[in-house]
Here is the input.
Amino acid sequence: SLRFSQVSDLIQHDLRCSRVMDIPPRILAHSIYIESFKMYREIHPKELLKCPWTKADRSLAPTVRKMSDHFNALCQFVAKEILLSPGEKSRNEMFTFFLKVAISLYEFGDILSLAGVHGGLTHYTVARLDGIKKFQKILKKKSEGGKKKKVAEIFEKMLFLFDPSANNKAYRQYWDQVDSAVPSVPYLANH
Here is the structure.
């Protein structure tokens, strides 16, 4: 799976990159998507029978657990990058950067990683920051046009898609409409 230390490798490989925001959001999203899809493709059907990932023996569902670890690492990575950004403006830029990554993940059909980015963006350590609270309110109002409007729309769509009400109804309706010809990665927690 993609280790988020590999993002550092991506940054070091390209001398023009000195931080995560120097990687184009679509390129970062594509790298994450490829790793997610590889893991999803490796799941053996027996890993999904009788919820073996809930057992103490981690060897019973190695790929499902690897995907769970990927989700958790992505949540932590997104939250950490926002929290380590110096100043309110820089944190808002990082928040916007990860929303752009989320747009690409949505377009690629990587809902597992989209959920991970959503988890990082809405993590309590990020959501409690005053500057982020103000920024989220601006996004929810969609008062700005152009590219900002698209960013606002994906933020709102993520909040709706991962709304747990009615047994994750919004996500289930979305997943029922996904084109099966497109190699997509579901959010396994809702399946």
Q: What stands out?
A: Residues 10-15 have pLDDT under 50 and may be disordered. The CA atoms of residues 109 and 168 lie 18 Å apart. DSSP finds nine helices and no strands in the chain. The radius of gyration is 17 Å.
